[in-house]
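Protocol step 4 of 6: structure prediction from sequence.
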Amino acid sequence: MSVSIDPTSVTTVSDDPAPAKGAKNEQALRPHAEDAFAQELQALAAADDRPRPARWKLSPWAVATYLLGGTLADGTVISPKYVGPRRIVEVAVTTLATDRALLLLGVPGTAKTWVSEHLAAAVSGDSTLLVQGTAGTPEEAIRYGWNYAQLLAHGPSRDALVPSPVMRAMGDGMIARVEELTRIPADVQDTLITILSEKTLPIPELGEEVQAVRGFNLIATANDRDRGVNDLSSALRRRFNTVVLPLPESPEAEVEIVSRRVDQLGRSLELPQAPDGIDEIRRVVTVFRELRDGLTTDGRTKLKTPSGTLSTAEAISVVTNGLALAAHFGDGVLRPADVAAGILGAVVRDPAADRVIWQEYLETVVRERDGWKDFYRACREVSA
């Protein structure tokens, strides 16, 4: 016997009524992708005349355009959400149009979560069917749980069942997301095997099952650089198409990514508008890339690599924090002193080893570089 779960049957109690899905919440600190870019999604849907897979809001071409950016026939500009090889996005979108799940793999800070969220928003119009992977994620987060008051009073029943985001996505034909899959314990990870291979979720307690309807698929993200990860079993990995998201190829591409994202975050956080800080952004990106690669940009000096990842996401964080410092405690202009402390915190993760690497970099590279004297002094002050 198979059964579909109606997510409207699950109720929650809150002091304040939540806004209806799709309604713009002006007070949200971080709006969901489908809310923040609702106008772009609507424009794409109106202009999209290509075939769409079952229950997709947009065609695969329009989904790729939403992520990579472009200009529509009516002049509407679609901002790029991902700056990188087009083929990577095309393979990811195509995977979701098949019966294969998608695994976005890469080192921390390569926009795996960002891409996952925007893919779900463009395909299903809802990026919130999310399981956040941690060392404590239980099996119920992927399968289903129980309302224990109902369970004790009436025994196992549909009313006592609490569907997981994955179960809801199966019943509604939507995209489910599992973030940090390798953080989840191995026995819980393998709960996905039946779902991905049979497109079915058994409910033994009721003698029933949930069968996925057309449009269902799953996006997982994972990285193997952090400590404490749980490797995927070969059986589970075979059920994914894996797409590796690389670090930005060039300094110019990384500067563009950081600048664009910092601007978005600044508007979201309502930071006072600051003058162009592109020089400091380029300096932060240069420091991160050189220490990450173990080589200066001119290729002349080899460097020791610190223990941190020094990802693009961390560069965005450093610059955003610097803008806040400049706006609230400075003259509104992003200066070396505003980013120096953030860079120190990102580089020096191991106080013993990384501090030595950072000091050596300051003295052998930064100190001798033309136009970097003010940056050198600012970094020396916070490193003392």
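Step 5 (inspection) to follow. The longest strand covers residues 217-222.
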